[in-house]
Model the fold of this input.
Amino acid sequence: MVGWQSLGTPNGTEVGGVSAARINAAKDWVERTFSGETILAIERLDFFYSRSQALREVTMDVPKDGVTAIMGPSGCGKSTLLRTLNRMYELVPAARATGTVLFEGENLLKADPVVLRHKIGMVFQRPNPFPKSIFDNVAYGPRVHGVRNRKRLLPIVEDALRRAALWDEVKDRLRESAFSLSGGQQQRLCIARALAVRPQILLMDEPCSALDPKASDRIEQTARELAETLTVIIVTHNLQQAGRVSDHVAVLLAGGELAEFGPTHSVFEEPKDPRVADYLQGRFG
Amino acid sequence: MKTTPTSSKTSRRKTAQCVAFSLLGLGSLFGFFFLAFIVFWIVRQGAPAITWEFLTQAPRRMATEGGIAPMIVGSIYLTLGSLIVALPFALGSAIWLSEYAWKGWWVRAIRIGVNTLAGVPSIVFGLVGLSLFVYTLGFGVSLLSGACTLAMLSLPILIRASEEALRAVPRSFREGSLALGATRWHMIRTVVLPAALPGILTGSVLGMARAIGETAPIMFTATAFMLTQPYPHSLFDKVSTLPYHLYALVQFNPYYNETKPIQYGIVLVLMVVVTLLNLTAIVWHTRARRRKAW
Done:
């Protein structure tokens, strides 16, 4: 006889209709989350662009602090996954995410995106400073939050620029246009702009793809330094970069399937999934 | 010696091309000469009329003497007034169309409506303005009624120009703002509108250039040939404008021949004003384009 019991309860025990396995998983999760190990718990996340599916049942716990890299071949949904975490995907009509992403005990897919983006900042592929002065770029976020007084803004701006390792280069020219900066400086300005609202998580979407190697190097360094005080999640298609910069790595494969997630060194040295091994080797040549 | 049949074919095709190009070139030259002739004729006929007195005095003795200063002032008031009335509506709908509205039948309907408005004959605006602003709203035949009527006329130009300017703002600016926790409205106010402003201003000037030459929409709603006072003292006073004054001189004034130099003087002034407005728009446009770094 094949009944509902055999479907939902593999080990036979159940409490109030919920299997012991699920309860244990939940307990486990609560422990990890509240011991401060996990900042984002992604569970069975599906993502669709109208009919086509970009992510398939992605489940992973992003550890608190440190750098988590998301890697994979192009078109595998890396950026989509990142943009789900601060709900930026909503700018695309007919894009839809289902599942849960727990952040601060709440499913962020159902949270208010405006509030959420205060806590989860983002740096984009191409530096996108506003056509305003350097100061006004960094002060933009705090001003959104209602800090208008220039005297109160100045220390915030300075702190953000210092953390983005840009202060020394721009401290004498804060009133100049952000477009007077080089590409790498512009990207660090965008990092400073994101930091000025004091986010807990910083999402970086291939932040070095438009930069030369030297500027990329500085961004990587900055990301490492930032990871001491906040959680950095970085999308990259560059294996060496992921190896240098990240503590944990998630590898997505074509079709939006999370093939492997774990500490960077163990994924790189002993990938469990043969497809991930192929991907890593193919890229190393 | 063999001549290949293809080579004669090629040369025939080349001749055909030559003829076609010459005809097309002539066609375009014709357009140019037509413009050149109009400009030449107006300058030749109108230039003698342009004196300091002509530009600064009110008309006297059935407009056979004096100048056209009240009409210059009236034209400026009416066009500026129409811009002040139209710009808030135009900006509002442009922002809504480009920033908030997703594609749907409703948006399509509004767009078709705006485009159709651009094709409505201007005399229709005149009649609508007469019944709506002059009678129903009780503004009377006045500067205010005329400005409102002209505003309806320039609305489509302003909406289209503003919408284009808004859409030209890069997506990355919007994303950058939203990612910092800004609301859509805050983003529009602090990032999108400032970046689009030069384009919107350019569009406004072009809208003014269009409105300043109009006669039909204002002849029922704002103007009178015989003004009781040359300059308006309030929004509810009548005004006269350059094109309307010309129309009245040619159509109603018994001294048609005596006022001929004045007629051409008016046209010359009008043409110079319109050219200046268009030049301003072009200069702003290129300057804004050179300044922006994205």
Q: What stands out?
A: The interface with chain A takes residues 102-103, 170-183, 186, 190-191, 194-195, 292-294 of chain B (CB under 8 Å). The first helix of chain B runs from residue 5 to 46.
